[in-house]
Amino acid sequence: MTTPQQHPAPPQQAPQFPPQGQPQGYWPGQAPAGGYVSPIPVRKATLGGAIASEWTKIRSVRSTMWTLGVMVTLVLGIGLLAGAVVSGSAHTGEKPDTPLLILGFYGVLLGTICVITLGVLTISTEYGTGLIRTTLTACPDRGRVLTAKAIVFFLLVFGITLVCTTLVSIVDSMLVGDLVAHAPSGTEWLKATVGVSLYLALLGLLALAVGTLLRHSAGAITVMLGVMLLPLVLAMFMFSSSLADVRQAMLVYSVPNQLAVLYSSGASNGISGWTPLWIMLGLAAAGLLGAYASLVQRDS
Amino acid sequence: MIEAVGLTKRYGAKTAVHNLTFQVRPGAVTGFLGPNGSGKSTTMRMILGLDRPTSGYVTVGGRPFHQLPNAPRQVGALLDAKAVHGGRSARLHLLSLAQLSGIPASRVDEVLGVVGLQDVARKRSKGFSLGMGQRLGIAAALLGDPQVLLFDEPVNGLDPEGILWVRNLMKRLAAEGRTVFVSSHLMSEMALTADHLIVIGRGQLMADMSVKDFISANSADFARVRTPDGEPEQREKLTAALVEAGGRVLPEQDGGMRVTGLPLPRISDVAHGADVRLWELSPHQASLEEAYMRMTQGAVDYRSTDDQRAGFQPPAPAFGHQMPAMPQMPQQGWQETAYPVLEGERPNPYAQPVAAAPAAPPVPPSAPASVPAPADLTKRDSEDAR
Fold first, then answer.
1. Does residue B94 sit in the same domain as residue B195?
2. Quick one: B120 and B184 in the same domain?
3. What is the CATH number of the domain that holds B102?
4. Given an 8 Å threshold on Cβ–Cβ distance, is B195 in contact with A26?
5. Helices A255-263 & A105-129, crossing angle to 10 degrees?
6. Do the record's keywords include Membrane (chain A) (predicted)?
7. pLDDT for position B384
8. Is residue B267 included in any domain, yes or no?
9. Range scoring the smallest mean pLDDT among A8-12, A276-280, B161-165, B312-316
């Protein structure tokens, strides 16, 4: 029986004052052989677990809701507004030969900024707060962490953009369908919905990679905005004729033009068809490879 | 079991950790001490595989961290209490870590209960106090119920109740046979919690021994002796007798003496033999803090100096006006009165003799708190910091 006066924790304190004279006598020799064994069953950590973890992370912060909410608002709002304006102000007479689905382009172009921001924030906030150390302690396989982030982010952006662009395309074609010369073909539909969504998701992956490389939210977002807008802006001011080729390339390969190509019916100078998607796929792959190498090599 | 062998980390020209070799064994709380910037956190990051050692290696349970099977189930760590996304709730933060490590989600609510955060589990951690953040960090470390636990400054910002809780938690974890490695600046806390100490300074190992050994090796236990006030001849008599008996005597400012080298009964005998009455004869056991300060005084990178406000002093009095000698300055006196220089010990370069203070430039007595430190003290400090 324990009397109330007795101190409840003598076993822990006893090791502090062991008998002297023995070598290493200060080590409390009370540790069970083999150390502590947890009763919680050991389950191997998998990529699936990492994906679930990243999903928990991305859905539990407000910046995700804000950036994606703004993106949805921009893509839907501007896309539908453009359709409404065109349908309201249309003249009766000769039908213009412009592609119908490009009405969704303006909203998507603004939406890219949200995708870039979210892509960078997905990893850079971990560096900003120091959470990355906790994450990498919980999962020493750094490649798995980045893979899970990339998969979750890609699917999230792709899914949301697909829903928005499809909705905009359907509504706009109902509003403006009778006013254009020809209805969009199946390929045009596919490019304007799935193609644009893939393009945006890949652009977001590039932002994620830049965020991993730079580890700083503001810096990475600035770099990505520069990559997106500067070629177009610079090309606007290249008046010298000797720079004409450079100017042309910068115009053609700028991100807004690539997006427009995905909306157009084909006859564009320079690139056409699905090419923008392959370009962005290459950029995102290169960026992610660099991000993997950086994440694995560098101290965090 | 954590084992470091020749662990070295350089950042460019700066060596953060130099040739550290130590073992942290299971079943005990091992304290990790060192001044600011001495490489404690760098060492902890290298143990966790976050930083790559420039040379040497460190293993946990015989393997480098990144080669451990189910690492989060074997090692748990609290590195930085603020290392959470402020917008995420405590529960979801832990849930994401659990999912990442393959730990059942039910464990999340369990550890939230252990650290006492169940009531705020669904609140965003931005609003947490530092103490609550520490509790959340400890919860994350305990999530995998691991065998090896690392805590970097776990009691920072905790209230007394929380400090007591952490102390008992560490001891309980160690008593269960786990390896507990904890860094802290709170010496009194370490003295109560740790069984074993690893002390580093400027990235180098300074001590690796039990708390008890550390204190006795790095401090002077002494006896405080006081003779009746107002009878200085008694005091001189006793001093002479004690020195003759082989003791060392250091006078204290309040008229007492510190005697080393003689056991208490012997001091009493000597006093009796010299026919001196004693008002006080008390043993003084050095604290861990004292031992730590004594050991690391040469390895401190960031040392505070007096705020002299030199540019804001009123102009010096007219030329030729001689100031009377300044009274004895209590400032900085603790350094030498608290830690008398032992035999065979390198004198503390920072302990400035009190007598040196009046040699400072004359200062009008009306100026408050105007005690300029001797110039050479500052110089030595800045040389040392390089």
1. yes
2. yes
3. 3.40.50.300
4. yes
5. 130
6. yes
7. 41
8. yes
9. A8-12
Domain match, B155 and B270 both: no
Give the predicted TM-score (pTM) of the model. Answer: 0.78
B184: containing domain: 2-210
Q: Among the three residues B289, B306, B328, which one is the final residue of a domain in this structure?
A: B289
Reported ipTM: 0.84
What is the pLDDT, as a whole number, of residue B32?
Answer: 94
Number of domains chain B contains: 2
pLDDT value of position B362: 44
Residues B138 and B247 in one domain: no
Quick one: pLDDT band at residue B323, thresholds 50, 70, 90? very low
Cα of first residue to Cα of last residue in chain B, in angstroms, is: 35
The tens digit of pLDDT for each residue in A182-201 reads: 788 888 899 999 999 999 99
Please tell me if residue B167 touches chain A, with a CB cutoff of 8 Å.
Answer: no
In angstroms, how far is CA A69 from the centroid of its own chain?
A: 15
Residue with structure tokens 């939210």? A217
B17 is written with which tokens?
């950790």
Residue B366 belongs to a domain: no
Q: What percent of chain B has pLDDT over 70?
A: 80
- DSSP code per residue over B139-197: HHHHTT--SEEEEESTTTT--HHHHHHHHHHHHHHHHTT-EEEEE-S-HHHHHHH-SEE
Domain end call among B176, B210, B244: B210
Shared domain for B133 and B272, answered yes or no, is no
What CATH number has the domain bearing residue B252?
Answer: 3.30.70.980
CB < 8 Å from A in window 269-298 of B? none
Domain residue spans of chain A: 48-293
Interface test with A, best of B100, B107, B171 (most A CBs within 10 A): B100
Per the domain annotation, does B321 fall within a domain?
no
Chain B contact present for A22, CB below 8 A:
no
Do B91 and B146 lie in a common domain? yes
Q: Please, are residues B149 and B141 in contact by the beta-carbon 8 Å criterion?
A: yes
Nearest chain A Cα distance for residue B155, angstroms = 18
Q: Taking a C-beta distance cutoff of 8 angstroms, is the pair B152, B80 a contact?
A: yes
Which residues in chain B are closer than 8 Å to A54, comparing Cβ atoms? 96
Chain A CB contacts of B89 under 8 Å are 60
- For chain B, percent helix, then strand, then coil, each to nearest 5? 35, 20, 40
Sheet holding B257-260, edge to edge: B248-251, B257-260, B222-226, B280-284
Q: Is the pLDDT of residue A24 over 90?
A: no
| pLDDT at residue B284 tops 60 | yes
Query: Does residue B315 lie within any of the structural domains?
Result: no
Confidence of residue A79 (pLDDT cuts 50, 70, 90): very high
Name the least confident of A220-229, B59-68, B307-316. B307-316
pLDDT band at B246; cut points 50, 70, 90 = confident
